[in-house]
Each structure stands twice: as C-alpha cells, then as structure tokens.
Write a structure and sequence with these properties.
The complex is a heterodimer of chains A (95) and B (244). Helices cover 28% and strands 22% of the residues of chain A. With 95 residues, chain A is an alpha+beta fold. The radius of gyration of chain A is 37 Å and the shape is elongated. With 244 residues, chain B is α/β, with parallel strands linked by helices. Chain B has one domain. Chain B has four helices and eleven strands. Classes of the chains: A alpha+beta (95), B alpha/beta (244). At the A-B interface, strand 1, strand 2 and strand 3 of A face strand 1, strand 7, strand 9, strand 10 and strand 11 of B. Strand 1 of chain A pairs parallel with strand 9 of chain B, so a sheet runs across the interface.
Chain lengths: 95, 244
C-alpha cells in the first residue's frame, strides 16, 4: 500500500464532506438566507420586452397560394371528368 | 460519356420531364389569378343530356358565413359528392364567406366529385370569398378541385372550386351587398337542386350564371375598396367602406 492511499484512509472527514468542500466555490461567501436585500433588489433594473414580432430577426411576409385541379377516369367508359379551380388572390404586403 | 454520344437522356433531364408531366396532370399553379383546369374523357363520349335524368333528392346547397378570431387562420369550405345512383343527377354546392382578421390567413376551399354509377351526372361546386386583413403577414389560401369517374359508364362528373381572397382593412365588417348576393346564389343553386328533371346542360348554365354572379361580387368588393382609396386618400390606405 502506498503512502498516498494511506493518507486518504487516515483522514477524519467522511467522503461526503470531502466532496462538498471540493465543489464549493473558494471565494464566494456562503449565505444562509438566499433572499435579496432591498438594496440588492433596487440595483436590479427591468424593462418590458417588445412584441414578439418586433423581436424577431426574420420579419418576413409569406404569400403562398395553392391552386390545383385534378380529373381522372379510372376503369370508366364513355365518361367525362372535369375539374376547374379558379383562384383570385392579389396579395399586397408591406413591412 | 456525353448525352449526345450515348443517345440516352440524362437522369436530370428525365426527372425534369417527370416533374413537368406531373405538373401538367395536376394542373398546379400558384399566384394571383391562378386558374387550373383538368379534364379527361374515356371512350366515345357524347355529353349525356337525357331529359329523363332525375335530380337525386339528396342534392344539397348551403351557405356559410364564418367569423374567425385573431388566432384562427380561416375555415375550410368543403363540398364532397359521391354519386352511386344510376340515371341520377347529384349536385352539391356551398357558398362560403370567411372573415379572417388575424396575421396568419390560410382559408381552404375544396370541391370533390366522384361518380361510380351508370349514366349519372355528378356536380360539386365550392365557392369561397375570404376577407382578410391588410396587415396579414402570412397568406396561404388553398383551392382544390377533384373530379373522378371510378367504375363509371356514360358519366359526366364535374368539380369546380372558386376562391377569391380580398384584403380589407377591417375583415370583421359584414358587407350587406355580399350577403345579398350570397343569398341570391343560394337561391339559384336551390333551383337546380329542386328541379326534378333538369338536364345537365340546364344545370351547367345555371351554375355558370351563379359563378358569374360570384365573380361580380368579388370584383365589386375589390372595386369598392379601390374607389374608396382613390377618392379619399390616394397616397395612403383608408378604412374600407361597407358598400351597403
């Protein structure tokens, strides 16, 4: 057994205590009460966010009309199938 | 090896041809004033205009007006007719007026006619007017017509979908004139519906008249808006005045 392992086993601290000490910040004071003081609260500034549309990096307009007509005769005789789709959608958009 | 030397079309050209053929078959188009027509005939077709053709009692016409809230992109006007009655004319029509005030407008209009019978006629007519806001940022109206003869002999099957999208400053306003015309259209379609022995030619001509009225209505609504803008303030948009 090496001297290093011997030291670990001879310490008085439990493994949990050792872990807590290693993970704790070195120079941060530990507060028992996590609430902000009125002075700290006064230092915080807040502002209302603008609308989602104004915050968007992409302010795009989309115009995507779809117009389709399909006609078919399947296993039919002496028949006519006629499909007519008319769409009038003049779209004006501006930013 | 180059395409000319090999004498065979390249894969890219083949795929372009397939896409072009599909586009032709489907009649797909997009944009303002789009019109798609697809027709297919089989065998020796003589348009059936027999005088003894009877209107199916389940024929139906209706009108609908829907006010959508800000978050609703618009309703769906759907007319589906499946005819299984021999020697019968079955027709359904629906006139739809949609008010879409939100920023996202995507109303849909769909007509489907399917004939599976002998010597029968099937007509589906979907007419839709969409009043949408001038501030809408996403506008995606959808208009589709499908006509199909399936195991059908001596059949005439027709589907018509007409959709007019009109931008107005206040889509929640109800144009009285539009309401009057919608009622008139409904009356005309009802005549077709309740005529016991109407021929397809007569039915088609009445429907054509209704479609003409429908186009006039849309044109009038648009014209009224343009006139109002021109007269009151040529340089900026002004609230659309109800043409009552």
């Amino acid at each position: 057994m090496t001297s290093e392992s011997r030291d670990l086993h001879t310490t008085d601290r439990t493994p949990d205590e050792m872990l807590e000490q290693e993970s704790a910040p070195m120079d941060m004071p530990k507060h028992d009460d996590q609430d902000l003081t009125p002075e700290e609260l006064a230092q915080q500034e807040s502002a209302e966010l603008p609308d989602r549309e104004a915050m968007s990096l992409i302010n795009a307009n989309v115009a995507a009309p779809i117009n389709a007509a399909v006609a078919a005769n399947v296993l039919s005789d002496n028949s006519t199938a006629q499909a007519i789709a008319i769409q009038d959608a003049p779209i004006t958009q501006s930013n | 090896m180059s395409e000319q030397l090999s004498g065979r079309p390249s894969r890219r050209r083949l795929s372009a041809g397939v896409v072009f053929t599909l586009a032709l078959l489907l009649g797909l188009s997009a944009g303002a004033g789009a019109s798609s027509t697809a027709a297919q005939t089989s065998g020796d077709v003589s348009t059936p205009v027999s005088a003894d053709l009877q209107t199916d009692p389940t024929s139906d016409v209706s009108t609908n007006e829907q006010f959508n809230d800000e978050g609703n992109p618009g309703g769906r006007n759907q007319v589906i007719v499946h005819n299984h009655s021999d020697d019968k004319l079955l027709m359904r029509g629906r006139v739809d007026l949609q008010h879409v005030p939100g920023r996202y407008a995507a109303p849909a209009n769909y007509a489907e006619a399917v004939g599976s019978c002998v010597n029968c006629q099937t007509l589906a007519i979907a007419l839709q007017i969409d009043l949408i806001s001038t501030t809408a940022t996403t506008i995606a109206p959808e208009n589709v017509a499908v006509a199909l003869n399936l195991h059908c002999t001596g059949c005439f099957t027709s589907a018509r979908a007409l959709q007019y999208v009109i931008q107005v400053d206040d889509p929640t306003e109800v144009p009285d004139r539009a309401k009057d015309l919608v009622r008139t259209m409904n009356r005309e379609l009802s005549v077709v519906q309740h005529s016991p022995q109407i021929t397809v030619t007569e039915a088609q001509s009445r429907i054509d008249a209704v479609v003409a009225q429908f186009r006039d209505l849309a044109a009038n609504l648009r014209e009224e808006r343009r006139d109002t803008q021109d007269i009151d303030s040529p340089d900026e948009l002004v609230p659309w005045v109800n043409p009552a």
